[in-house]
Design brief:
36% of the residues lie in helices and 18% in strands. It starts with 12 loop residues before the first helix and ends in a 5-residue tail after the last helix. Strand 14 and strand 15 form a beta hairpin. Strands 14, 15, 16, 17, 18, 19 and 20 form a seven-stranded antiparallel β-sheet that branches. Strands 2-13-10-3-9 form a five-stranded mixed β-sheet. 33% of the residues are buried. It is built from 26 helices and 24 strands. It has 723 residues and is of the alpha+beta class.
């Protein structure tokens, strides 16, 4: 794009001011509306500062459409009332939240127009129904002179100063715009801007700021920003805008534009610099309205902003005039709502659920409420801090939200409806499932059950982790089979994998499993296990036998693989290897103190505490003993002595695809030379080894000035050649 050389323009200040304003308007439109910035932010800021300086020197030349006036003026004591030249009427709401609601609207329009089945489909414009604040923007001779809220439809509030802060709204229009133009649309706040605003609010609250609060949802935050009496504060709360209609406009007989359709009008607004949603489209008849409703409904949760439905409008303006109005509502338009995503209900109780990784989550038990298309009876409170921050208590009236497939959550409490002083929520310090200790590690928001292998809530995850390829490796033991084994109560703990069918047989004979062991020789054990597996869905005799063979093979493992398979929190493969190398024997690891564990190269205070906590649980020790009794074994010996190498203490991160080395091969070579391979880049990283298609880890390395090696550089380092 050819850029304008501003400094080649005449030196006359008035001309210079006009040029700067025009240039900044063009760049702002590219940035905010088209999302195609043509100059760096620094250059825009330089031009803006120049304009500010010229206007400070010549205040008599300041105009309402100047970019500097987006934030200006003193705080208002109250908003002036504005009577709308053309009333801002409401649109009828279609209460049928199924796709059939679109069919109802089309049938009604066809009846009003006396159309038969032989007539062509009616053309509509289908638009998202934005969940924001309706706004009327008035332009005179191309300059924004007033912005007013909808109010009661007849009279709104003058919020011009605050609306000027919205970068997407043009302050001046092109020369082909009519002398009088009122554009109607929705002021809203994007979800990412809303989250960033609430995070800033939380930081202010944490710092002790008085009078600060977080916002319930983007719509409330947008409305609060628009009605903020101080425009400087409003400017700090990022707002956006979509145009969707007209109010007063210079009529054609006075030189105004002629529009044949609503869609053409929207495209003209777009050409004048107003943002129009890219989701807007024409639709032919009921079939395409239904398709639009379904498509937008599927996209709803992935949009960057909130919508609560779609709007259908007859496209032809002549047909709109023919259809007219009823009870101050246009016959030619309807708002087709989606199922509500937020509703009020009451908290009946607060329970604690245990996830498959041991995470404890407080869950509000609710009086049933229909929200997001389903009846909701439970809503997550996420963690203790969140439950306390929202101050959710039993008996409270709360707003609950469900968006798409997202787990329902409690958004906020209506404190004015609280009765009495119910007790604040406190996270229990024992697991509600297995009664093991629940701990919250330093720097983490979540409590976790320490029951591990013993806790039934974690059973499936523990089995899959133990059987994975990098642990003891039981080939053929996948998710669906584990689900069946657990749900049919065949497997409760890891040793049950090697005693398939024993529990049911012992119960049948009314004896203990230990007594059963005395009665079952190897062939009977094999037959019992084969019979048990063959009764599982999609398990023929051959596949059952293959799994039994894999289980038998898995009994011969290594100490690092066994340690990793136990699923001790924070103990990954590398740490398991260091523990095995340092101690040599499992019993030594199980009885080691935190101080002794800290002597291991890859173990810090958090990991040492986690290991100690795991083996302090008697049921975990019992699981290990039972696995040994089932024949799971590994080589043990004295602690291995490793001579320091030139890579001892060095931490590597691998990213991208290397020319000849696979990821696991490179990792093995580094560890054999005394180095450690980590998963993320930090200031403590010694080297990043980057191959083709390296991603964010390479960017992070360059940002932190961490040395970057290619495969040749790694090979040289492994061979002791200094880089």
């Amino acid at each position: 794009m050819q850029t304008l050389d501003l400094f080649a323009m005449p030196s006359d200040d008035a001309q210079r001011l006009a040029t700067l304003r025009q240039t900044l308007h063009e760049h702002a439109h590219r940035y905010y509306v088209l999302d195609e910035p043509s100059i760096p932010d620094a250059e825009y800021d330089r031009l803006f500062r120049e304009l500010q300086a010229l206007e400070a020197a010549h205040p008599e030349l300041i105009t309402p459409d100047s970019p500097t006036q987006r934030v200006g003026g003193k705080a208002l004591e109250q908003f002036a009332q504005v009577r709308h030249a053309v009333p801002m009427l409401s649109i009828r709401t279609e209460t049928d939240t199924q796709a059939s609601g679109a069919e109802n609207f089309d049938a009604r329009i066809r009846r009003e127009l006396s159309l038969t089945e032989l007539d062509a489909p009616v053309t509509y414009v289908a638009e998202p129904k934005f969940d924001g604040l309706a706004m009327n923007l008035r332009y005179e001779h191309g300059v924004l002179v007033q912005a007013a809220t909808r109010g009661d439809g007849e009279t709104g509030e003058d919020v011009t100063q605050n609306i000027r802060t919205i970068g997407q709204i043009p302050l001046r229009l092109p020369t082909d715009a009519p002398d009088v133009l009122e554009v109607r649309g929705e002021v809203y706040m994007r979800r990412d801007d809303f989250e960033a605003l609430n995070e800033r609010q939380r930081q202010k609250i944490a710092a002790g700021a008085k009078g600060e609060k977080t916002f319930v949802n983007p719509r409330n935050a947008a409305a609060g920003a628009v009605r903020q009496l101080d425009p400087a504060i409003a400017a700090q709360r990022p707002l956006s805008f979509f145009a969707y209609g007209l109010g007063e406009i210079t009529p054609p007989e006075a030189g105004g534009p002629v529009f044949a359709t609503h869609y053409d009008m929207l495209q003209t607004l777009k050409s004048w610099g107003f943002p129009v949603s890219a989701l807007v489209k024409r639709a032919q008849g009921a079939i395409e309205l239904v398709a639009f409703y379904d498509a937008i409904g599927q996209q709803r949760d992935g949009l960057g902003f909130d919508i609560d439905g779609v709007v259908y409008k007859v496209d032809s303006l002549s047909l709109q005039r023919q259809l007219g109005f009823v009870t101050r509502e246009p016959r030619w338009a309807v708002a087709h709502k989606f199922p509500a995503q937020e509703m009020l209900t009451t908290v009946l109780a607060i329970d604690v659920q245990v996830g498959r990784t041991g995470k404890l989550t407080p869950v509000a038990k609710l009086a049933p409420v229909f929200v997001g298309g389903v009846t909701v009876t439970n809503a997550t409170l996420h963690n203790e801090d969140e439950a306390r921050r929202k101050d959710v208590r039993v008996g409270d009236t709360v707003i609950v939200r469900r968006a798409g497939d997202v787990i329902p959550e409690v958004v906020s409490v209506l404190l004015d409806k609280r009765v009495g002083e119910p007790e604040p929520f406190t996270m229990p310090h024992t697991c509600p499932v297995c009664a093991s200790a629940a701990v919250r590690e330093e720097g983490e928001a979540d409590y976790r059950c320490t029951g591990g292998l013993f806790c039934s809530a974690q059973r499936k995850q523990a089995i899959l982790h133990f059987a994975q390829r990098r642990a003891v490796e039981v080939e053929g033991l996948g998710d669906k089979l584990v689900d069946q084994l657990v749900e049919r109560d065949v497997v409760r703990t890891l040793p049950d994998l090697y005693r398939l069918g024993w529990r049911a047989q012992a119960e049948l004979l009314a004896i203990s499993q230990d007594q059963l062991a005395d009665e079952l020789d190897a062939s009977k054990q094999q037959a019992l296990a084969l019979s048990t597996l063959s009764n599982m869905d999609r398990m023929a005799v051959l596949s059952a036998q293959n799994l039994l063979d894999a289980l038998q093979k898995s009994k011969q493992t290594t100490l690092p693989r066994f340690l990793f398979g136990l699923g001790i929190r924070h103990v990954g493969e590398a740490t398991a290897k260091e523990l095995a190398r340092h101690f040599g024997q499992l019993d030594a690891i199980m009885t080691a103190t935190e101080a002794q564990l800290l002597e291991v190269a890859d173990v810090g205070p958090i990991v040492a505490r986690s290991i100690r906590t795991f083996f302090d649980q008697p049921h975990n020790v019992e699981v290990v003993a039972q696995l040994r009794a089932c024949g799971v074994t590994w080589p043990e010996g004295p602690p291995a002595e490793r001579a320091p190498t030139h890579l001892s203490g060095k931490t590597f991160v691998l990213t991208g695809t290397l020319p000849t080395l696979g990821r696991e091969d490179a990792k093995a070579l580094i560890e054999a030379a005394g180095g450690k391979v980590a998963g993320s880049v930090s200031k403590k990283t010694s080297y990043v080894v980057a191959g083709s298609e390296a991603g964010s880890k390479l960017d992070k390395a360059l940002e932190l000035d961490v040395p970057v090696l290619d495969e040749a550089g790694l090979q040289a380092l492994l061979q002791g050649v200094d880089e």
